[in-house]
Amino acid sequence: MKKSKNNLTSFSVHLDQQYGSRGDEMRENFENEFEAFKLGVMLQELRKEKGLTQEQLAEKCGTTKTYISRIENNASDIRLSTLMRIIQSGLGGQLKLTVDF
Fold this sequence. Notes:
Oligomer: single chain
Number of strands: 0
Distance between the termini: 28 Å
Number of helices: 5
CATH superfamily: lambda repressor-like DNA-binding domains
Order of helices and strands: HHHHH
CATH class: Mainly Alpha
CATH topology: 434 Repressor (Amino-terminal Domain)
Largest sheet: none
Number of domains: 1
Helix content: 55-70%
CATH architecture: Orthogonal Bundle
């Protein structure tokens, strides 16, 4: 285990110990769930910046308050078409995607 001068373990070492190396099934599941969590937090922050309640955002993009809540709390997978509608119609933004290898 790699420790720093302060006897601390780096986060990447911690992830390797807890979930395995990148490419391992358990680690990839963790990474995917973390990305979904980040998306939910990002949508929640954007919604709040726009001064919208979950219900107002849902009305603007044609979905339900419950669905918005589930996305923000990482309790639901989201379809790309729904994400685009939330970003464009609900929040007035543009969705841009990238792929990393």
